[in-house]
Amino acid sequence: MKITCFIPFGSENETKATVRELRSSALIAKIFLIGSEKALFDVEGAEWLYTDSMTSGSAIQTIAAQGRSEYMLLYTRHSPLKLSQFALERFVQIAEDTGSGMLYSNYLAVKSGIPEVNPVIDYQEGGLRDDFNFGSLLFYKSEYFKMAAAQVDKGLSRAGLYALRLQLSLIAPIFRIPEYLYTEEESDLRLSGEKIFDYVDPKNRAVQVEMEKVCTSFLKTSGAYLEPTFHPVDFNAESFPVEASVIIPVRNRVRTIEDAIVSVLSQKANFSFNLIIADNYSTDGTTELIEKYAEKDARLIHLIPDRKDLGIGGCWNAAAAHPLCGKFAVQLDSDDLYLDETTLQQVVDAFYREQCAMVVGSYKMVNFALEEIPPGIIDHKEWTPDNGRNNALRINGLGAPRAFYTPVLRCIKVPNVNYGEDYALGLAISRHYQIGRIYDPIYLCRRWDDNSDASLSVEVMNGHNLYKDRIRTIEFLARKAMNKDKNGA
User: Fold this and answer.
1) pLDDT for residue 192
2) Of the candidates 189, 212, 228, which is a domain's last residue?
3) Whole-number pLDDT of residue 197
4) Domain of 23?
5) Is residue 239 in a domain?
6) What is the pTM of this model?
7) For the residues 210-236, what does the mean pLDDT come to?
8) Whether residues 113 and 253 fall in one domain
């Protein structure tokens, strides 16, 4: 008998179905039902384990105390579990072959009665985001589980599993099995564009604060934590033709680019500014529309890059290198608008007030008609002056609009990709410089069917997440190395 299982109890039928499925394997030693109080039904072949939700610190430690077999399995859903052929044998075999502390696998997700493949991605060093999708079947070497659980704060209410994973990653590898080893019911049928802002929903604020505490503690333990000391910036080091430039990369956005242009040219500021549109060879009438405005207003610079291999990041580099680019480069996506005519002034004022190399604002989610939609205002209050750049390794984005002191932007440069380029740039800048924040909304983020992330397949979402995780890994390793050099280790 090698495996002790822990599952949350749900309805009677669901719970009994999962227990029967697990008991069908000779590898199972015991099955515990996790709950704060006993249900009104008995489940043959399972024992009750009274504790908090599986995500709490106290539950993690209670579970660890019961893991007396060689391996432990946690199933985190209430819906019935269906194992594939010899799935548990496969988990055991690969655990023994690799010496891993935690294993997870691809799975099938049943959506509206139809099973769909749901591949997951490899875990990597620096994979610090708390919404990493491991699936619902988590397999552990008991020895490593217990070692990691001993470091988990019992007072955690929602970050227990997250803390366990981070601590375990310091002890043994976390390994993905690229095989479909189980089937689960998928209850969240929303499109990708409806899910991506869950982590910044204001109702989740208390959870975010707890996750930040856990992540910060891990960074200190692993040597990647950065103290709140920053390189100074000298805003008088160079001269520029204007104080600020708004930069809009665009390709085929004829339905929205005019609104964006008007939003910029309507700004009221006590300094000179211009608008640089990097038109990446549009074919839908966008180019002609930009030209119409450029002929009427000399502040609009219509830039068509020399290269044809540029993504959004490459267009940013081309615009920032333009001789007419101002001291501060301010972002506006071609789908979006500034909230009112004061946005640009507020951004530039923040640079001087906070003596920072980058400013990030707050935005309001709206539909195509500019009507507010859930979750409403995204203010990223998890970013604090002292700990923002550490917590940035955990979250999936930094906010909008984003603005940069141009000499720093020209030095660090933007990755030439179409997704995650802004996040990569923000992390790299925050390694050395302070990032200023504006917590009042100054930007309208418009959600509509043509958004690049509105409805993505699992494979595309996995590619996006894998890239951002790789960016985190790069930054995690760079910060560890910087701290090591600083400390003379």
Assistant:
1) 47
2) 189
3) 56
4) 3-189
5) no
6) 0.92
7) 96
8) no
CA count, 13 A, side-chain hemisphere, 61 = 12
- Peptide bond preceding 80 in cis form (omega within 30 of 0): no
- Amino acid symbol at 267: Q
Burial class (CB in 10 A: 0-12, 13-18, 19+), 485: exposed
Domain membership of residue 228 (yes or no) is no
Whether 259 and 165 share a structural domain: no
Tell me the pLDDT band of 111, cut-offs 50, 70 and 90.
confident
Backbone angles phi, psi at 209, to 5 degrees: -60, -40
250 located within any domain? yes
As beta bridge partners, residue 250 has: 279
Integer-rounded Cα radius of gyration of the chain: 25
Q: Let me know whether 263 and 370 are in one domain.
A: yes
Looking up residue 262, the CATH number of its domain turns out to be 3.90.550.10
Q: Specify if 357 maps to a domain.
A: yes
Measure the CA–CA gap between 466 and 28, rounded to whole angstroms.
Answer: 34
Report helix, strand and coil shares of the chain as percent, to nearest 5. Answer: 35, 25, 40
Question: At 179, is the secondary structure helix, strand, or coil?
Answer: strand
Using alpha carbons, select from 163, 162, 159 the residue that is nearest to residue 207.
159
485 three-state secondary structure = helix
Interior CA angle at 311 toward 310 and 316, to 5°?
A: 85
**C-beta separation of 447 from 363 below 8 A:** no
